[in-house]
Every structure is written in structure tokens, then in C-alpha cells.
Amino acid sequence: MRQRIYSISMNLRIIIKFIGLTLSFYKKSKPGIYFLMYHSIGEKINLEIDIDSSLFKKQIGYLQSRGEIISIDTASKMIEEKISLTKQYFVITFDDGYKNFYLNALPILENHNAPAIIYINTSFIEHPEMIPIDPRVGFTKKMHPMSWKIINKIKDNSLITIGCHGHLHKELPTISSANIEKDIKKSLSIFQAKLGIQPEHFCYPRGMSNQRVENLIASFFISSVITSFHGKPLECIKNNYAIERIPVLKSDGLLWFKLRVSSKLYLDILFFNFISKKFLR
Ligand SMILES: [Zn+2]
Q1: Would you state the pLDDT for residue 15?
Q2: Cα 165 to middle of ligand 1, angstroms
Q3: Rounded to an integer, what distance in angstroms lies between the CA atom of residue 109 and that of residue 11?
Q4: What is the CATH number of the domain that holds 146?
Q5: Does 152 reside within a domain?
Q6: pLDDT tens for residues 209-235?
Q7: Which of 68, 83, 152, 161 has the fewest Cβ atoms within 10 Å of its own Cβ atom?
Q8: How far is the CA of 39 from the centre of ligand 1 (A)?
Q9: Cα–ligand 1 centroid distance for 171 (angstroms)
Q10: pLDDT for the residue 234
Q11: How many angstroms is it from 49 CA to the middle of ligand 1?
């Protein structure tokens, strides 16, 4: 049944995208910092969050022709100094710590000299069977995490920032403050032991937060990202602990991707999130 609702809503979503395409002719894209959310590159699986390597390469090239890809630290500084922005900037983010980041995404980022941040979920690295994929995004076979040895290599790459994605990948608004602290401290102690670093940026598991969670996270990190549930691109960032991200989807190809990063397409995400919350949880 869930599978059926999923495939029907995927088809409806395509129709809504075409409506978005028509509307897009009447909208202008705006300057600002746009955060993009990726998970998996070139795994060749039928999941919206897995982007083909050749498409990813085109997307990175497109972003660079359109504006500038900057690191999360540069973005944080711009936000802090409240610099007025005259063009589009992009921050590339990856969630969870899949091995295909190292195998498929990193060579492309290096070729384009494009910075990115990867938010590592520590329990996934320690226990590869604990795949942190939300069942709402699809139904999949096994995906593998990076090893600590690989993450150590990535740590020394000046283009890549290592971020924290919690330990157990629990939806933080649903657990007590004491347990959130425990989860974060556990994750940070593993980073310290395995990499000798303390990540400064956080990503809420499943992109979920609330005011209580944000206040807690602020005592550990300098920024934190969520999933943009209305899918609307950012034109300015109001809250460093609830930075919204545009989800990049396989079915977007290059055309819809171009519209998304031009602040012209988000109705379909609004629709799909509604379906996910109502029927796929
Ligand atoms: Zn995750």
C-alpha cells in the first residue's frame, strides 16, 4: 500500500513540476546563500536521494556558471557580518556519510575546486547495518558508510568540512533534552577519538528541529541545517540554527534543478512532504 501511494504521489509530483515550470517564467531568481542537500551520488539505485555522477557533475558546473560555491565557514561568516549579497552563493551539503561520497562525489568536487560539507552520522560509521535512510524517501537495498580511515583522509582535504549528524540519528524533537545531550556528546567523543577533531557544524537527523532543540544545539555548534519542508530556496538566513536546504532529487534532472536553485520551483516539494507526513510515516 505504501509503495502504491509512493508511486502515485511521484507521478502527481511530475504534473505539479510542470505547473511550476509555467509559473517560473513570471518569477525572478534572487541573490542569496542557497544550501543544497545531497545524500548519495552514483550508487545507481532507484532512490530520489541518489543522483547520477554525470548529473552531479553537470549540476556543480551549472552552479559555478550561475554564482559561486562557497564553504559553510565562508557562508557562516557572511551571515554573521550581515553582508548584503548581490549574487547567488551555494553551499553543498551531504548527509549521513555514504561511501559513494568518497568514490563518486569527491573527485567531481575536486575537479571543480568546489567546497562541500559532509555531516557524518557516527553510529552508521561504527555499525554499517544502521542505515540512516528515512523510509519516506523510498525503499532501498543496502548502502555502505565510509570507514574512519577514509574519513581521516577527507578530513585533510581543504575543500571538505566534516560536520556532525548526531549519533543514533534520532528525530531530536521527540527525545528529552538530557538524551539529546547524551547523543551529541557520544558523537563528539567518537569524532575526537577517531579523527582528533570537534566538528563545528551540525545537521539535525531527518532535518527535524524545534526551538528547544535549537537552543541545545547552539551550545555545541556554530550552525545547524534542517530540511526545507516548504522547499523554498533561501534568499537570506535568519537563524543560524535552522538553515533551510533545498533537497536535490534524482527526478529533477538538470532542468528542474536549474529551476530549484533559481527560487522558481518548490510547489512539488510542498506537495510531496504533505503526502509523506500524512501517508508514508
Ligand atoms: Zn541523515
Answers
A1: 65
A2: 7
A3: 32
A4: 3.20.20.370
A5: yes
A6: 999 999 999 999 999 988 765 555 566
A7: 83
A8: 8
A9: 10
A10: 60
A11: 11
Residue 13 lies in a domain: no
When comparing pLDDT for 19 and 142, which is higher?
A: 142
Pick from 104, 114, 117, 118: nearest CA to 60 = 114
Query: What range defines the domain where residue 210 resides?
Result: 30-58+72-251
Report how far residue 166's alpha carbon sits from residue 190's, in angstroms, rounded to the nearest whole number.
Answer: 11
Whether residue 38 lies inside any domain: the answer is yes
Total domains present in the chain: 1
In a domain, 3, yes or no: no
110 CA to centre of ligand 1 in angstroms: 24
pLDDT of residue 280: 47
pLDDT band at 281 (very low <50, low <70, confident <90, very high): very low
The per-residue DSSP string of the chain comes to -HHHHHHHHHHHHHHHHHHHHHHHTT-----EEEEEEE-EES---S-TTEE-HHHHHHHHHHHHHHSEE--HHHHHHHHHTTPPP-SEEEEEEEEETBHHIIIIIHHHHHHTT--EEEEE-HHHHH-TT-----GGG------PBPPHHHHHHHHT-TTEEEEE--SS---GGGS-HHHHHHHHHHHHHHHHHHHS----EEE-GGG---HHHHHHHTTT-SEEE---TT-PPPSS-S-TTSB-EEEP-GGGTTHHHHHHTTT---HHHHHHHHHHHHH--
Q: How far is the CA of 177 from the centre of ligand 1 (A)?
A: 20
